[in-house]
Protein backbone atom coordinates (compact mmCIF):
# COMPACT_ATOMS: atom_id res chain seq x y z
CA UNK A 1 0.00 0.00 0.00
CA UNK A 2 1.54 3.37 -0.97
CA UNK A 3 2.24 5.95 1.72
CA UNK A 4 -0.30 8.78 2.01
CA UNK A 5 2.60 11.18 1.70
CA UNK A 6 4.13 9.62 -1.36
CA UNK A 7 4.76 11.73 -4.42
CA UNK A 8 1.52 10.42 -5.97
CA UNK A 9 -0.67 12.21 -3.40
CA UNK A 10 -0.45 15.47 -5.28
CA UNK A 11 -0.06 16.12 -8.95
CA UNK A 12 2.86 17.96 -10.45
CA UNK A 13 0.49 20.83 -11.28
CA UNK A 14 -0.67 21.08 -7.64
CA UNK A 15 2.92 21.00 -6.40
CA UNK A 16 3.85 23.83 -8.77
CA UNK A 17 0.81 25.85 -7.68
CA UNK A 18 1.73 25.44 -4.01
CA UNK A 19 5.35 26.34 -4.68
CA UNK A 20 4.24 29.52 -6.48
CA UNK A 21 2.88 31.08 -3.29
CA UNK A 22 5.09 33.89 -2.06
CA UNK A 23 5.17 35.76 1.21
CA UNK A 24 6.61 39.01 2.48
CA UNK A 25 8.97 38.92 5.44
CA UNK A 26 9.26 41.31 8.32
CA UNK A 27 10.20 41.57 11.97
CA UNK A 28 8.24 42.51 15.07
CA UNK A 29 9.94 43.95 18.12
CA UNK A 30 8.25 43.88 21.51
CA UNK A 31 9.38 46.33 24.18
CA UNK A 32 8.30 45.79 27.77
CA UNK A 33 8.41 48.45 30.49
CA UNK A 34 8.18 48.57 34.27
CA UNK A 35 4.85 49.40 35.89
CA UNK A 36 4.40 53.16 36.15
CA UNK A 37 6.35 53.93 32.97
CA UNK A 38 4.62 56.55 30.81
CA UNK A 39 4.76 56.46 27.02
CA UNK A 40 3.64 59.99 26.26
CA UNK A 41 2.06 59.93 22.81
CA UNK A 42 -1.54 60.80 21.88
CA UNK A 43 -2.17 57.58 19.92
CA UNK A 44 -2.47 53.84 20.56
CA UNK A 45 -1.15 52.83 17.15
CA UNK A 46 0.62 54.70 14.39
CA UNK A 47 1.24 53.72 10.78
CA UNK A 48 4.69 55.05 9.82
CA UNK A 49 5.32 55.99 6.18
CA UNK A 50 8.51 58.02 6.51
CA UNK A 51 10.92 55.43 7.89
CA UNK A 52 12.78 52.77 5.86
CA UNK A 53 12.75 50.33 8.79
CA UNK A 54 9.56 50.79 10.81
CA UNK A 55 6.04 50.53 9.38
CA UNK A 56 3.83 50.37 12.48
CA UNK A 57 4.07 51.13 16.21
CA UNK A 58 1.44 50.09 18.73
CA UNK A 59 1.21 50.85 22.44
CA UNK A 60 -0.49 47.69 23.52
CA UNK A 61 -2.09 48.82 26.77
CA UNK A 62 -3.54 51.93 25.07
CA UNK A 63 -4.77 49.88 22.12
CA UNK A 64 -6.57 47.53 24.52
CA UNK A 65 -7.72 50.44 26.73
CA UNK A 66 -6.07 48.85 29.78
CA UNK A 67 -4.50 51.03 32.45
CA UNK A 68 -2.81 49.21 35.32
CA UNK A 69 -0.60 50.35 38.17
CA UNK A 70 0.76 46.79 38.40
CA UNK A 71 1.68 46.08 34.79
CA UNK A 72 3.90 48.26 32.66
CA UNK A 73 3.17 49.28 29.09
CA UNK A 74 4.46 47.40 26.07
CA UNK A 75 5.16 48.51 22.53
CA UNK A 76 4.96 46.40 19.40
CA UNK A 77 6.93 47.59 16.38
CA UNK A 78 6.52 46.05 12.91
CA UNK A 79 9.15 46.61 10.25
CA UNK A 80 8.68 47.39 6.59
CA UNK A 81 8.77 44.50 4.13
CA UNK A 82 11.96 45.76 2.40
CA UNK A 83 13.74 45.93 5.78
CA UNK A 84 12.51 42.42 6.65
CA UNK A 85 13.66 40.96 3.35
CA UNK A 86 17.07 42.68 3.51
CA UNK A 87 17.73 41.51 7.07
CA UNK A 88 16.01 38.12 6.90
CA UNK A 89 19.14 36.07 7.58
CA UNK A 90 20.74 38.48 10.08
CA UNK A 91 20.87 37.63 13.76
CA UNK A 92 17.89 38.68 15.85
CA UNK A 93 20.20 40.61 18.17
CA UNK A 94 21.58 42.72 15.31
CA UNK A 95 18.12 43.34 13.84
CA UNK A 96 16.73 44.21 17.28
CA UNK A 97 19.39 46.89 17.71
CA UNK A 98 18.72 48.37 14.25
CA UNK A 99 14.96 48.54 14.88
CA UNK A 100 15.48 50.10 18.31
CA UNK A 101 17.81 52.76 16.84
CA UNK A 102 15.20 53.65 14.23
CA UNK A 103 12.48 53.75 16.89
CA UNK A 104 14.49 56.36 18.78
CA UNK A 105 14.24 58.57 15.66
CA UNK A 106 10.45 58.18 15.67
CA UNK A 107 9.95 58.41 19.46
CA UNK A 108 12.93 60.36 20.84
CA UNK A 109 13.32 60.13 24.58
CA UNK A 110 11.61 56.77 24.82
CA UNK A 111 12.40 55.15 28.20
CA UNK A 112 14.71 52.15 28.27
CA UNK A 113 12.65 48.92 28.30
CA UNK A 114 13.25 46.20 30.89
CA UNK A 115 12.95 43.55 28.18
CA UNK A 116 12.90 43.26 24.38
CA UNK A 117 11.82 40.40 22.17
CA UNK A 118 12.57 40.36 18.44
CA UNK A 119 10.46 38.02 16.32
CA UNK A 120 11.23 37.17 12.69
CA UNK A 121 8.23 36.58 10.44
CA UNK A 122 9.73 34.75 7.51
CA UNK A 123 6.20 34.22 6.16
CA UNK A 124 4.43 37.41 7.19
CA UNK A 125 1.79 38.07 4.55
CA UNK A 126 0.87 36.45 1.28
CA UNK A 127 2.05 38.49 -1.70
CA UNK A 128 0.96 35.94 -4.33
CA UNK A 129 -1.72 33.41 -3.42
CA UNK A 130 -2.27 30.06 -5.16
CA UNK A 131 -3.80 30.82 -8.55
CA UNK A 132 -7.18 29.38 -9.53
CA UNK A 133 -7.83 27.81 -6.11
CA UNK A 134 -10.09 30.23 -4.28
CA UNK A 135 -9.93 29.38 -0.60
CA UNK A 136 -8.58 25.83 -0.68
CA UNK A 137 -6.99 23.03 -2.67
CA UNK A 138 -8.17 19.44 -2.36
CA UNK A 139 -5.05 17.33 -2.65
CA UNK A 140 -6.57 13.92 -1.98
CA UNK A 141 -10.09 12.53 -1.49
CA UNK A 142 -9.46 9.27 0.41
CA UNK A 143 -8.11 9.98 2.88
CA UNK A 144 -9.26 13.59 2.75
CA UNK A 145 -6.40 16.02 2.46
CA UNK A 146 -7.33 19.66 1.93
CA UNK A 147 -5.02 22.68 2.13
CA UNK A 148 -6.33 26.04 3.26
CA UNK A 149 -5.21 29.31 4.73
CA UNK A 150 -4.32 32.77 3.57
CA UNK A 151 -2.05 31.30 0.90
CA UNK A 152 -5.27 30.56 -0.98
CA UNK A 153 -6.98 33.92 -0.40
CA UNK A 154 -5.50 37.06 1.12
CA UNK A 155 -3.54 37.94 4.26
CA UNK A 156 -6.19 39.25 6.59
CA UNK A 157 -8.86 37.92 8.90
CA UNK A 158 -11.48 37.87 6.14
CA UNK A 159 -9.15 35.80 3.97
CA UNK A 160 -8.72 33.25 6.76
CA UNK A 161 -12.49 33.03 7.31
CA UNK A 162 -13.08 32.66 3.56
CA UNK A 163 -10.53 29.85 3.36
CA UNK A 164 -11.95 28.02 6.37
CA UNK A 165 -15.45 28.11 4.86
CA UNK A 166 -14.07 26.79 1.56
CA UNK A 167 -12.26 23.96 3.38
CA UNK A 168 -15.48 23.12 5.24
CA UNK A 169 -17.40 23.05 1.97
CA UNK A 170 -14.79 20.76 0.39
CA UNK A 171 -14.81 18.35 3.34
CA UNK A 172 -18.49 18.19 4.26
CA UNK A 173 -19.32 15.62 1.58
CA UNK A 174 -16.63 13.26 2.90
CA UNK A 175 -17.33 13.42 6.63
From TrEMBL:
It comes from the Eukaryota. It comes from Galeopterus variegatus (Malayan flying lemur). InterPro entries: FAD/NAD-bd_sf, RNLS. This is Renalase.
